[in-house]
Design brief:
Number of strands: 2
Helix content: 25-40%
Structural class: alpha+beta
Shape: flat
Oligomer: single chain
Length: about 80
């Protein structure tokens, strides 16, 4: 996962706890954040591959058609 997410050059790995919709706490969840010194105000277009992963996840988890349609309108860099 580190290689796919560009750790440590592009993103920093963090271990966090999250709470599910049912209220169950899940510990030791890996997440990646852009380091503050690498953030920008400019929109950076995602790759088609990355956007498709996001869209498939939105469909899989039942997000609204309106939201999925918005995702499909995001311009990609390739």
């Amino acid at each position: 996962m580190d290689k796919k997410e560009g750790h440590p050059k592009k993103y920093q790995r963090h271990i966090i706890s999250v709470r599910t919709e049912e209220g169950k706490e899940v510990k030791n969840v890996i997440t990646y954040w852009v380091p503050k010194e690498k953030t920008t105000q400019d929109f950076i277009k995602p790759s088609k591959e990355y956007l498709n992963i996001i869209i498939k996840g939105a469909e899989r988890y039942g997000l609204s058609k309106e939201w999925i349609d918005k995702l499909k309108q995001i311009p990609t860099k390739d």
